[in-house]
Amino acid sequence: MNRIIHFIFVLITVGSLLSCRESIDPESALIYDGPINTAIDIHIIHSDSATHRSEIMAPQQLEFANGNLEFPDGIEIKFYTSDGQLETTMRADRGYFLSEQNLYRGEGNVQIKNLIKDQRLQSEEIFWNQAEKKIYTDKFVTIQERQTIFNGTGMEADDSFSNYQLKQVRDSRTLLPGEGL
């Protein structure tokens, strides 16, 4: 009889221990979607047939599990001519690489300069499709070409910013001495 009481006591104790689990909120078991890797002072050089084509520089790069990259402290991209001469620079306050679309996006104070043609662009957002060698935006842009300023919404250009098409032109004017982007 003593063994039966002992067996029942053990059975009740084990049963109560197993039934006293804390319930888990499914919302608290979310998967981490933050950066999986951080790099400081990055400098990436793209070349083709031993010729410099472009450079990407940023103070910080965050890498995510889906392949996307974020440049929270800004990004600078330089484009070179086929003979290796620096042709165009692009800078943005923040940058992103969208892996699925193979697309770079700059936002904030975006500035593009074609050093050879003396052209400048200013906008709040720009996209660079590296595969198609094209930059574009649907935001408001200001373009300075020599002594003339053009304003409009939307722009498409080759990635050297040598040839561009300004969409929905709002106005243009000649710069006064000392003025410019």
From TrEMBL:
Query: What are this entry's molecular-function GO terms?
Result: lipopolysaccharide transmembrane transporter activity
Matching entries from InterPro entries are given as: LipoPS_assembly_LptC-rel (IPR010664), LptC (IPR026265)
What is the native source organism of this protein?
Algoriphagus aquaeductus
Query: Where would you find the membrane-spanning parts of this chain?
Result: none
Q: What's the protein here called?
A: LPS export ABC transporter protein LptC
A single Gene Ontology CC annotation of this entry is: plasma membrane
Q: Which Pfam families match?
A: LptC
